[in-house]
Backbone:
């Protein structure tokens, strides 16, 4: 049979229609419906979440314990002894927390006082810039959060974070969790983890676990709203931030 | 024909190896969908979507859920079937009805030889013995 252009085009057209019909039915078997999802109706929103830590109200090491415990219990943070420790909320000395050039004749108590440390949820987070899979990303409300499903454990973010706010899971953390909170996942071996400003609690209309446990020593709120409580407190008190000269613009402030 | 015997013998061996899975399974029972233990009627009578749809599409649904929740902050799902609202959470929604991972998830996954890694992080409810 002689094939001319007219005949070829007819056959090609029919074949293309057949292929399209097959692909169409295959694609139609699953239809996600984005219009059917919404945030919780009582979730808390902000332009940029921030935290103020009133260091004047923390006197002893024991004052930090309930806060750290509340956080670590809620998020199934394991207690691993030695150099494989995982931490979301922890304390350290003034000189380690604020290591840049100090006043020459520093107030005596500063040499002994501990400071509450956590992820600073920077406005300009280096961890987000270096993450190759975008597992770490900054949400529209300023929270620097991790999508554990995407973390490949490359630890670039740990190298990028100037505050040591991230921990790597060298081993399965489950055996080191005394009491599991079944409403929150644990992590797995080979991922990095950090504080998430209790994004899952904000979604339910609750304040972060540490803020709730602090009985007013921590203030949490919207930094973008000039009328918010946190902005009033920042306007009335002298605050410092960790390593401000790096330009990461932390959202955690310390009243001293 | 050169080396005809070797070529034919080679072809026979090749066809034998290629069809090994077929004749190895001859006489064995055909695959049957495992009987799943559904939640008792007083706990739940209806899933997020219809049971047939869930059976076929739950993996895509869960994959979408995790993105909607973690990346977009949308946590409430409205069922296309019933219009009811559900929190998109494996631990807080799915496993509150399907309280046995062994009897519900594992049965099919074992039969189909798939090993999703959900439970490396998400905590399955305690199995009642």
Residues:
């Amino acid at each position: 049979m002689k094939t001319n252009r007219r005949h070829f085009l007819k056959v090609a057209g029919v074949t293309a229609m057949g292929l399209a019909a097959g692909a169409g039915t295959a694609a139609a078997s699953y239809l996600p419906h984005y219009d059917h999802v919404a945030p919780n109706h009582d979730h808390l929103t902000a332009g940029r979440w921030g935290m103020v830590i009133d260091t004047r109200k923390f006197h002893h090491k024991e004052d930090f314990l309930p806060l750290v415990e509340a956080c670590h219990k809620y998020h199934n943070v394991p207690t691993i002894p030695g150099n494989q420790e995982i931490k979301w909320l922890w304390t350290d000395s003034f000189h380690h927390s604020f290591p840049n050039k100090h006043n020459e004749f520093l107030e005596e108590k500063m040499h002994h006082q501990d400071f509450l440390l956590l992820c600073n949820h920077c406005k300009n987070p280096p961890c987000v810039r270096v993450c190759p899979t975008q597992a770490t990303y900054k949400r529209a409300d300023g929270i620097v959060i991790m999508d554990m499903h995407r973390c490949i454990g490359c630890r670039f973010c740990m190298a990028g974070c100037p505050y040591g706010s991230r921990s790597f899971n060298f081993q399965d953390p489950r055996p080191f969790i005394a009491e599991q909170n079944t409403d929150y996942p644990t992590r797995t071996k080979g991922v990095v983890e950090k504080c998430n400003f209790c994004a899952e609690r904000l979604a339910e209309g609750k304040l972060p676990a540490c803020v709730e446990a602090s009985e007013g020593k921590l203030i949490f709120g919207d930094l973008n709203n000039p009328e918010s409580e946190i902005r009033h407190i920042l306007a009335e008190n002298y605050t410092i931030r960790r390593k401000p000269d790096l330009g990461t613009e932390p959202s955690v402030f310390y009243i001293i | 024909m050169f080396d005809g015997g070797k070529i034919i013998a080679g072809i026979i061996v090749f066809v034998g190896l290629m069809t090994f899975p077929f004749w190895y399974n001859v006489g064995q029972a055909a695959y049957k969908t495992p009987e799943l233990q559904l939640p008792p009627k007083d706990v739940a009578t209806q899933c997020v979507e219809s049971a047939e749809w869930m059976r076929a599409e739950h993996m895509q649904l869960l994959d979408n859920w995790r993105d909607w929740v973690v990346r977009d902050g949308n946590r409430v799902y409205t069922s296309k079937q019933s219009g009811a609202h559900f929190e998109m959470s494996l631990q807080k929604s799915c496993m509150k009805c399907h309280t046995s991972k062994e009897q519900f998830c594992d049965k099919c996954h074992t039969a189909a030889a798939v090993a999703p890694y959900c439970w490396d992080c998400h905590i399955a409810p305690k199995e009642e013995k």
Summary: The mean pLDDT of chain A is 91. The first helix of chain A runs from residue 5 to 28. Residues 49-255 of chain A form a domain with the Alpha-Beta Plaits fold (CATH 3.30.70.20). The first strand of chain A starts at residue 37 and ends at 38.
